[in-house]
Amino acid sequence: MPRRRGASPVSDAGALGRADAYARGVPHGRLERLRSRTPVVWLDGTAAERPGAWAVLRYADVHHALTHPELFSPQVDGPLHGPLTGQAAPPDAPEDADLIDMDPPARAMLARIPSGEPVDFVGEVARDLPETVRNTLAGGLYALLRHPAEYARLREGQADETLVDSAVEEMLRWWTPVLQVWRTVQRGTDVGGVPLLAGEQLTLWLVSANHDGDVFPDPGRFDPERFLRPGRPHLCFGFGYRACMGARLARVHLRAMLVALLERPGLPRLAGEPVPLRSSTRRGFAHLPVRWTPC
């Protein structure tokens, strides 16, 4: 499909669908430039071997599309939480019950991090979890590793459950493990001033919406108290009645891990260079080496 109004130079827009653009993490600089210039932009899909689609980048436009499923119908694209490492995991398998336990054994999981010895959080500590939950926990831990002052603030205030809940929401906003979701235009409409035709495809960039500075001031900063203040919700799981059914599962696992981290004596540290996933759809790590150190 030819580019229409809203297209931008390939230097930014063309990179969004290429997996190698994520070798060092999400290209937030590119997303910020596109939000300010052409927040609804055509991606031809060639690099990702997918059909062309309109990328929607601003919070307001993503929120609009998520809350109007009669105009933008969802597409199901793979398992809800992705495959398990090394397992087929059919829904009726007994071992699956542990994976969706709403009282997850976070302390036992963190016990896999020996004191003083390096370990890969993704491949060894959280290896048994569904992909999206594993990516979410790795991202939450990475947020703390990157922001030691905020980690210390959380340890001081760990008895404040509202602060812990706010920190969980901020982890989800800051990390956003599912970068984009797909929608199909049901009838002629427009988004962000760009006319859309029935049958065209949209990619709603949740990670871009969650780092929209017009909604989340200083979006690159991890602020555990952000969701204690009045404001808009993040869009990590979508929004409305079509929101991700796994949202509660992810929140429960992430909160349990955060509480276990704050209670355990000592501190986690990076034990090497993290290796981000090369993916334009999922955000996680191929490897996240960590080490537990004494206080």
Keywords for this structure?
295 residues; alpha+beta; Cytochrome p450; five-stranded mixed β-sheet; three-stranded antiparallel β-sheet; 10 helices; 32% helix; disordered N terminus
Radius of gyration: 19 Å
H/E element order:
HEEHEHHEHHHHEEEEHHEEEE
Number of helices: 10
Oligomer, anyone?
single chain
Helix content: 25-40%
Main CATH class: Mainly Alpha
> What is the total domain count?
1
CATH H-level superfamily title: Cytochrome P450
Overall 3D shape:
globular
Regions with little confidence, pLDDT below 50 for 5+ residues: 1-10, 78-88, 90-100
Structural class: alpha+beta
On the 0-100 scale, what is the average pLDDT? 86
- Strand element count: 12
CATH architecture descriptor text: Orthogonal Bundle
Which fold name fills CATH's third level, the topology? Cytochrome p450
Strand arrangement, largest sheet? Answer: 1-2-8-5-3
Strand content: 5-15%
What is the terminal-to-terminal distance?
Answer: 58 Å
Tell me about the largest β-sheet.
5 strands, mixed
